[in-house]
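User: Last request for today: this protein with nicotinamide-adenine-dinucleotide, please.
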Amino acid sequence: MFRLSGKVAIITGAAGGMGLASAKLFAKEGAKVVATDIQFDLLQKEVNAINKSGGDVLALELDVTSPEGWKSVVEKTIKKYGKVDILVNNAGIHIAKGILEAAVDDWNKVIAINTTSVFLGMKEVIPHMQKNGGGSIINISSIAALVGGASDGGGAAYSASKGAVRSLTKHAAQNFAKDKIRVNSIHPGAIYTPMMEKSGLSREAAIDLLKSDYPLPPHVGEADDIAYGVLYLASDESRFVTGEELVIDGGFVTR
Ligand SMILES: NC(=O)c1ccc[n+]([C@@H]2O[C@H](COP(=O)([O-])OP(=O)(O)OC[C@H]3O[C@@H](n4cnc5c(N)ncnc54)[C@H](O)[C@@H]3O)[C@@H](O)[C@H]2O)c1
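Assistant: Here's the final one, the structure of the complex with nicotinamide-adenine-dinucleotide:
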């Protein structure tokens, strides 16, 4: 018996970083996974590797800002696996521009990918969870939704987008508890994924830069540190947990 036996999960942004780590862990724990990303070739390559080691994962291209894209992914999920038990809204981007530097286009892009996507995903999946007698939705927010300062890497729209994910999670948790649908948010601190790599920092440089903000060694987390939290919230082990904020940040917000 595995922790997600018999469950069907949709994960966004699964071609790398936390989304990929969650897809691998879910497959290992017995879930059937629909892994989605806008980078389809990379996603398919990663999914092939998971399936080679015994997973049951379907790769689908999805731009999370597209309502039609969401409709198609959910339809294909129901066709192949018959239901959706778990939705992980993980896809996201970061633009390191403050209020004075960001253009309106930067703002709109970040809000669309980080926040509107969460609304669209829940809108499409919740009716199926209602029919199915319940489900678990995990929205990846950030410590930027909780505190200011270094938490948002200098991104004004990023901060706002993740704050909105936090409050939208609570809205959904209240409204769909009656349907046994649980909705929780995860608030990662600095995690070494392709997102951080793209900013030009090596892991060692990131640790050096961040160790005074993140008291718990190794001072910068790994994608698996988040995936284990996602797994807990996805599984029935958290059946009495909803509207909660799981902070995984090496102690950043405790300062
Ligand atoms: N890495 C961190 O330090 C950190 C900290 C706090 C929160 N987060 C959040 O965690 C989540 C995962 O981040 P990560 O670090 O693994 O990032 P990542 O860049 O490694 O992975 C994000 C994935 O999202 C995909 N994506 C981007 N735009 C998309 C779109 N329009 N449609 C579909 N997919 C799209 C990318 O292709 C990528 O595979 C994000 O929501 C991010 O904001 C990250």
